[in-house]
Structure formats: structure tokens, C-alpha cells
């Protein structure tokens, strides 16, 4: 008989709707659930993989759901990272939480991968506000802090003067300030998609009340069920995957030419979307976690580094022209081994040592890092001396 899953929910609000729903659905499935305030934990390091201590006892968990508020991000992420180092399944890694919470970082990652995002400019001085506004399409424009939740620190500026005052105020509070394109056709509304385990669980449209342009449910926005178009589902899933989000809320604007990614929330509220969609979102999240925690994802680099001084290095052959036309065995040395060869769109795993290298190849080698680098440097010096 399979042992019941031990689930830890990191949350400072056990009374909150989302936390209560997750607890109920987990217990309905026979799980043992513990709600832990991340600020009431301590970390013990140096004993094997370390421990997370709560009220004097180490937490024994098979899976962890982080429900960490913005105000305690740093403290919460430390706890999440400790669970990860112990090999515990965590629905949203420490890195994915940090990436998604920084709107600038998230936009950089997503736009680089072709996800449509509003034109955005980083402003470090209020004197640069006018130039930033011109780059995002003029006023009205959105002024926001790079970090924030539930629409806090997000403002719609109708004039350059208003924008400058908002930027000045946010900078005075030591915020990282973004000036963002205003998507007029999506004023006061957006689409929230819950993604869990790489699949869409539920979706809704949020509509702001009155003159408010922010549509957040916690700001009084109305919610309504929608039939999510495939185009929107694909963008939501891809955005969550790119940021490493296992369970998240993806907010999309309805642009003239299709979906525009606004934000990915690593700790989405469930009340509004369960109300609108009539879907048991909490139950679907728990079902996903019940399956995922038995098949752990692995950070290959972390596994590789467990042997002190060892790791994987990438050699771009175009940067080492003396290896063009040579065999893989000429690049390797001692105990080092070629893990994979990237050739165009192909990955050749455990490539044959006699394979001849081409100019655009990238060779991933595992071994003692210092020895590999020294070997490459010696080869480079010998090559230069020949000429």
C-alpha cells in the first residue's frame, strides 16, 4: 500500500481562501498536510543536505507548495531552496519564483524567446521619463514598480507630468521603475490562466469596475468564464515553462493581433477563478503535485557538481578553430568525457570519440574543470606558437 503524501504548504495565511482550498483538496485525497509560516522556520546546514526546522522539529515532506507573499520573498525563497537541496519536490522552484516576481527580468526572458510583451523601458532617473515614454508609444502609459502584487504600484499616467511625478515617487521609495506601453484595446480587462504541470487548468476574464483600469479580483474586479482560445493557451503554457513555473497564474492582455503577456504569478489566488470557471482548480493542482512528486525533475548541473571540482563546460568550436576537422578525442583529456554534441538542431548524446568536429559544433565536456581549462589553454598556446 502506498504511503500517504506528506504535503507542506508554505503560507503566512492559513485562513486565506486559496490555502484552505488546497488543504481541503489534499486531505480529501488522503494527504497529510502541514501549513508552515516561512518566517517561523530555521535552517540547519552542514548535516547531509540540511534541514528545515519548524517549532523545534525538522519538516518531513514529500512535496511543498510555496504560497509566499511579495513582502517575504527573500525569506520564503531561502526555505524553498533548502527543500530543493534536500531533494523534496517543490511546486515552483526558488529561481522560478524570483524570476517571475521581477517584472523586468521576466519580460527580458520571455521577449527574448518570442513571447509578445508590452513595450517596456527601465527608468533610473525621473529626468529620463519623457524619453522612456516616447519609446513605448507616448501617453497614456503605464508606470509600475518591477516588483509588486495584486496591482499595487501600478499606475496609468495620462500626461508626461503625471508620469514624471509617479516615477519620482517610486524612485524615492527605492523601487525599480518601468514605463510600459498602454494597450488601449484591453483597458480595464485581462485574461487570467491557471497553468499546472504544463497544462491549462482554468481561465477567466477579469474586468475592472468603474474608472479603475486594473482588473485584479482583489481590487473589486468582476470575473467571468471564458472559452480560452488555443493561441492564448499556448502563450500561457510557454510563458510558464520558460520561467520554470509549475503552478502559476498567467495574465494576458487581449491585443488587436492576439495575446500579450502581462505577468506570470507564482502564487495565484484561487477564489476568483474557481468562482468564475466552476472548476475545482485546487483539486487539479493537488492531483498534479501527487503525480509529479514521485518523478522528480533533476538539475543536471547540480548532479554533475556533486563531485568536488567537477562540472560540465561548453566548448564552441568556432572559438577554437584549431579543432575544426579534428576528432572529439583531441579535445578531451584524461578522465574527461563528451556528454553531448550540439550540431544545428540536433543533440548527439555520448558522441563517438572519432567524430570529426565542424565549425558550428558545441561540445559539452564533463570532467575536472580546472584540468579541462588547463588542457584547452595549453592546446591554444601550442597552436599560437605554430604560427
Quick summary:
The chain folds into four domains: 6-99, 3-Layer(aba) Sandwich (Rossmann fold); 119-182, ATP-grasp fold, A domain (Dna Ligase, domain 1), CATH 3.30.1490; 186-292, D-amino Acid Aminotransferase, Chain A, domain 1, CATH 3.30.470; 300-386, Alpha-Beta Plaits (2-Layer Sandwich), CATH 3.30.70.1450. It is 30% helix and 28% strand.
Structure characterization notes:
The protein has 387 residues and is α+β, with helices and mostly antiparallel strands. It folds into 4 domains: 6-99, Rossmann fold (3-Layer(aba) Sandwich), CATH 3.40.50; 119-182, ATP-grasp fold, A domain (Dna Ligase, domain 1, 2-Layer Sandwich), CATH 3.30.1490; 186-292, ATP-grasp fold, B domain (D-amino Acid Aminotransferase, Chain A, domain 1); 300-386, Alpha-Beta Plaits. Helices cover 30% and strands 28% of the residues. It is built from 11 helices and 20 strands. The chain has helices spanning 17-28, 73-85, 94-101, 103-112, 129-135, 160-172, 230-242, 271-277, 281-292, 300-304, 369-386, and strands at 6-11, 32-36, 41-44, 51-54, 57-58, 63-67, 89-90, 120-123, 141-145, 154-157, 177-181, 189-196, 199-207, 222-225, 247-255, 258-265, 310-316, 337-343, 346-349, 362-368. The strands form 5 sheets. It has a 5-stranded antiparallel beta sheet with strand order 14-13-12-15-16, sandwiched between helices. A 4-stranded parallel beta sheet has the order 2-1-6-7, sandwiched between helices. The model has no long low-confidence stretch (mean pLDDT 89).
Amino acid at each position: 500500500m502506498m504511503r500517504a503524501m506528506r504535503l507542506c504548504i508554505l503560507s503566512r495565511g492559513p485562513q486565506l481562501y486559496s490555502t484552505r482550498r488546497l488543504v481541503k483538496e489534499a486531505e480529501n485525497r488522503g494527504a497529510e498536510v502541514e501549513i508552515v509560516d516561512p518566517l517561523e522556520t530555521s535552517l540547519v546546514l552542514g548535516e547531509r543536505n540540511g534541514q528545515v526546522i519548524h517549532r523545534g522539529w525538522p519538516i518531513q515532506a514529500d512535496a511543498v507548495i510555496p504560497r509566499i507573499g511579495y513582502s517575504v520573498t527573500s525569506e520564503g525563497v531561502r526555505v524553498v531552496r533548502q527543500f530543493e537541496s534536500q531533494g523534496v519536490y517543490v511546486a515552483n522552484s526558488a529561481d522560478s519564483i524570483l524570476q517571475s516576481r521581477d517584472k523586468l527580468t521576466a519580460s527580458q526572458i520571455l521577449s527574448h524567446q518570442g513571447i509578445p510583451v508590452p513595450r517596456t523601458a527601465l527608468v533610473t532617473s525621473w529626468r529620463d521619463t519623457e524619453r522612456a515614454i516616447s519609446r513605448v508609444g507616448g501617453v497614456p502609459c503605464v508606470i509600475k514598480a518591477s516588483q509588486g502584487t495584486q496591482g499595487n504600484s501600478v499606475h496609468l499616467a495620462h500626461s508626461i507630468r503625471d508620469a514624471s511625478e509617479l516615477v519620482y515617487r517610486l524612485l524615492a521609495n527605492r523601487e525599480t521603475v518601468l514605463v510600459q506601453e498602454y494597450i488601449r484595446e484591453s483597458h480595464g480587462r485581462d485574461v487570467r490562466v491557471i497553468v499546472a504541470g504544463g497544462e491549462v487548468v482554468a481561465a477567466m476574464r477579469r474586468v475592472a469596475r468603474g474608472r479603475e483600469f486594473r482588473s485584479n479580483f482583489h481590487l473589486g474586479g468582476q470575473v467571468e468564464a471564458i472559452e480560452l482560445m488555443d493561441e492564448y493557451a499556448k502563450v500561457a503554457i510557454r510563458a510558464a515553462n520558460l520561467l520554470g513555473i509549475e503552478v502559476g497564474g498567467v495574465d494576458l492582455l487581449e491585443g488587436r493581433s492576439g495575446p500579450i503577456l502581462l505577468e506570470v504569478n507564482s502564487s495565484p489566488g484561487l477564489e476568483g477563478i474557481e468562482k468564475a470557471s466552476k472548476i475545482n482548480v485546487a483539486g487539479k493542482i493537488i492531483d498534479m503535485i501527487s503525480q509529479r512528486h514521485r518523478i522528480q525533475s533533476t538539475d543536471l548541473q547540480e548532479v554533475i557538481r556533486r563531485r568536488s571540482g567537477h562540472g560540465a563546460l561548453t566548448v564552441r568550436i568556432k572559438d577554437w578553430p584549431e579543432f575544426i576537422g579534428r576528432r572529439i578525442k583531441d579535445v578531451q583529456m584524461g578522465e574527461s568525457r563528451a556528454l553531448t554534441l550540439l550540431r544545428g538542431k540536433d543533440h548527439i548524446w555520448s558522441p563517438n570519440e572519432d567524430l570529426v568536429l565542424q565549425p558550428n559544433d558545441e561540445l559539452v565536456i564533463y570532467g575536472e574543470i580546472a584540468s579541462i581549462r588547463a588542457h584547452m589553454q595549453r592546446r591554444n598556446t601550442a597552436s599560437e606558437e605554430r604560427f
